[in-house]
Every structure is written in C-alpha cells, then in structure tokens.
Amino acid sequence: MLSRCGLRTLFAAAALALAGCTSPHYLQVDPQITADIPQSGGGQEVTVNVVDERESEVLGTRSGSAMSAAQITVNSHDVVPKLQEQAEAAVRRMGFSPTTQPSDGRPSLTLTLTRLDYARGDGVPVLGEAVLEAVFRAEAVNQRNTYTGTYTSRRTQSYAVRPDQDTNTRMVNDLLSDGLNRTFRDPELGQLLAR
Q1: Over the stretch 82-103, which tens digit does the pLDDT of each residue have?
Q2: Rounded Cα–Cα distance for residues 176 and 126 (Å)
Q3: What angle do CA 169, 170, 171 make, to 5 degrees?
Q4: Which of 115, 118, 6, 110 has its CA nearest to residue 73?
Q5: Is 89 in a helix, a strand, or coil?
Q6: Dihedral of CA 55/57/59/62: which sign?
Q7: pLDDT of 42-73, one tens digit each?
Q8: Beta-carbon neighbour count of residue 27 at 10 Å?
Q9: What are the E-state strand segments in 121-189?
Q10: 3-state DSSP of the chain
C-alpha cells in the first residue's frame, strides 16, 4: 500500500505527464529553399515583399480538439523575416537584384503565406496521424502585367507517440520548405519579372 508521500509523488508525476501532453508548442521555424530555381534575370532590381495573411498564428492543436490547450503556434514576427530572407535569396538566384524598397515602374514580387494548418487525421488504430498543409501565393508584377500562382504543400505523418516540439518544428519546417520550393520552381514568375 502506498504511503501519503508515495501517493503525492504518483499524482505529481501523473500531473506532469498530463501537462506535457497539453502544453502549447511555439515553433521557431527556419525553412530553406533547396530546389533548382530557373534563372531569367539580368541583374534588374526587383522589390520583394513577404506577407502573412493567415487567419490565426495557431496552426491547430496536438490533440486535434479545437478546445485543447495544446496549441501549436508559429508567430508571424518570427516566420515573416525568415520567409523574406529565403524569398530574396530565391530572387537573387533567378538572376535579379532584390530590394525591399518599392519604386514606381520597378518589377515586384509579393510572397504571401495564406495558410498553415496542423490537424489530426484519421489514423489507423494504435497509430495517430498529423495532417499538415501550407499554402503560398506569389504575385509578380511588371509594368501592367501580373502573374499570380498558388502553391500548396501537404504532409501526412503517422506516429505511435504524439510528436514533441522538436518533431513538430521539423515537420512544419519541411512543409514550408517544400512550399517555397514549389513556388520558386515556377518559371513564369521570373519570366514576367524579366520582361
């Protein structure tokens, strides 16, 4: 039979385990473009801007329940500068000279993160499933010409043990990186900027 002290220890351990399951995850992502990017520029300046148009910084919850305290969050002030850095690097690899300063008549590229979701899927018994989706919109403008593309990246990950913060960070990083790769592999973007 457990003593009072032993019971207290057991309850404290159970509370900590439950707290670990319900604690929020604030992910600090660092996506990277790894794709080959079509080159079409000749050194022209292009204004590059990144916008976060998500309805919420909360991607979802670890349990799949909307009322759960185990929220997964990617803050706009953290992700936008990293996306800006990658977008400028991609524009440079296209053969242009990126700048953040707008100017009349200068071609521009606006990259918008419109969606970043994390939901619980319908996994097979015993296994859980995380379903992630990221959607980017890129708008290239040159004179009176505009080209807009929408690029969706999805990932479904099965798991026996619910992902921890490091695993969730890695999954969201991979998702955003794939979305960026899809975006900047589109040759139409560079071709319009080069006109």
Answers
A1: 999 999 999 999 999 999 999 9
A2: 28
A3: 90
A4: 118
A5: helix
A6: negative
A7: 999 999 999 999 999 999 987 655 556 689 99
A8: 20
A9: 128-142, 145-159
A10: CCCHHHHHHHHHHHHHHHHHHHCCEECCCCCCCCCCCCCCCCCCEEEEEEEECCCCCEEEECCCCCCCCCEEECCHHHHHHHHHHHHHHHHHHCCCEEECCCCCCCCEEEEEEEEEEEEECCCCCCCEEEEEEEEEEEEEEECCEEEEEEEEEEEEEEECCCCCHHHHHHHHHHHHHHHHHHHHCCHHHHHHHHC
Is the whole model's pTM more than 0.90, yes or no?
no
Sign of CA dihedral 160, 58, 54, 47: negative
Instruction: Return the DSSP state at 35.
Output: S
| Nearest to 85, CA basis, from 102, 103, 98 | 98
How far is the C-alpha of 33 from the C-alpha of 88, rounded, in Å?
A: 11
118 is written with which tokens? 């994390």
Structural tokens at position 140: 């290239």
End-to-end CA distance of the chain: 81
